[in-house]
Amino acid sequence: MRQPKTLEYLYLDFDGFFASVEQQARPALRGRPVGVTPFETKDHSCVIACSKEAKRAGVKNVMPIRQAKAICPELVLVPQSPDLYRRAHHALLNEISSVLPIEAVKSIDELTCRLDGRDKHHPEMVGQQIKQKLRDNIGASITCSIGFAANRQLAKMACKVNKPDGLTIWHPKDMPTPLLCQPLEDVPGIGKRMHKRLMRAGIFSMRALWRLDPKHMRKLWGNVTGERLWYALHGYDIHAQPSKRCMYGHSRILPPDWRSLFHARNCSRLLLVKAARRMRRAGFYSGHMWLSLKGHNWRWGKQVALYHVHDDQACLRGLDEIWQHALNELDGERKVKQVGVALYDLSPQNEHQLDLFLQADRNRGKWETIAALTDQLNNKYGRTVISLGSWCPPPGGYAGGKISYTRIPNMEDFW
Ligand SMILES: [Mg+2]
C-alpha cells in the first residue's frame, strides 16, 4: 500500500449547515442563536440543528426545545425548510467545484476533493480561495471548515479540529504529532461501543492506539475494519469500501395534533408512497417492508414480505396488512410521536424475476404500468397530481423531504 509523502486530500464540512443557510436566507436571523425545529412549534419536539451562536450558548443538535430554551432563552426557533437546504447544497457545490473538482459528496454538508500537483503544495491558498468564493458569491453567513492530509480519514479529522471557519493542515512530514492529542472518540469509526471496548482493552489514548500493530487492531475490532483504520491513521492511501444500497425509507415526527393512530396511518401511507417512488427512480424492487411507531416510552414495529414488488398498490397493500396487526395489538388511545416506513431486501430491476406468487397475481403487471404512468404524470406536472387514495400531508409538509445529513433530497421529494 502507498504511503503518500505529500498532502493528497481536502475535506470540507460546513459549520452548522441548516441554521447557517437559514441565517443567509433571512438576514433578521444573522448573529442570533437559531434552532431549527421539525415543524412550527414553540415547546414540543426538539431542536434538530442549531447555529454557531446557539452552540456557543451550550445548545446541541437534537436537544428538547424546553431544555434548549432554558439554556439559551433568546433562542430563535425556525421550522425546517428542506428544499432551501437542497438548493443551497447545490449552489455551494457549484462554487467549490470552480476552485477544485469535487471527488465525493459525503453528506449534505460534507465533501472531499483530491489535490493535484499544484494544489498539493499550496493548501492554504486553495482553502482561502474556496472560502473567498463562498463569501463573495453565496454570502458570509455560511462558513466551512477545511482539513488537508495525506488521506481522506486524516483530512476529515483535521477538518473537525478548528471549527467553525477553520483551516487545518496535517502534512505527512508533521505526523503523527497533531493526531496524538486528539481524543479517541473523535476518530471516525470509533463509536460509543468501540470506545468502551478499547477502554476494556486498556487503550485510553490516541498514543496507545497509535502504538498497536495492524493485526492487533483487527483483533480488537473483530474484523478488517480495525486493520483498515490502522493504515488510515498511519497515513496510507486507503479507499473506503463502496457501500451498497440496502433500503428506501422515510420517517417523520408527527405534530402534536396529529399523534393519533388514525393520523399516523395516513402519514405512513404518504411516507411509503414517497419511498416507493424513490425506489422506482433508482430501479429497484423490494422484498420486504417494515413499519415502526414510536411514542413516549414505547415503540412498536412489524415487517411483512412483499414478494419483490415496486408499485404503489402492492406496497400499500403490505402496509395495510401491517396496520391490521397494529390496530389489533395497540390500544386506540395510543399517542404516536414518530412514524417510519422502510422498503428493504432490494433487488435491481435487471435481476428481477417473476415470483411464483407474482405469476399467480395477474394484475401485478397492470399495477406496475399504472405506477409508471403515475410517475410520468407527477413528473410532468412537478407535483403530486395522481395518487392511489387520498393525499393529505401532515401540517409542516415535507413528508419525504425532511432534513437529513446523509441524504440529499431530490426536487421530486417535495411534491
Ligand atoms: Mg457540518
Compact description:
The protein is of the alpha+beta class. Helix content is 40%, strand content 19%.
Structure notes:
The structure is a single chain. This protein is of the alpha+beta class and 415 residues long. The chain folds into two domains: 11-150, 3-Layer(aba) Sandwich (MutS, DNA mismatch repair protein, domain I), CATH 3.40.1170; 247-414, 2-Layer Sandwich (Dna Ligase, domain 1), CATH 3.30.1490.100. 40% of the residues lie in helices and 19% in strands. It contains 16 helices and 14 strands. It has a five-stranded mixed beta sheet with strand order 7-8-1-9-10. Strands 11-14-12-13 form a four-stranded antiparallel beta sheet, covered by helices on one side. The chain is globular. The chain starts with 8 loop residues before the first strand and ends in a 34-residue tail after the last helix. The protein binds magnesium ion. Magnesium ion binds next to strand 1.
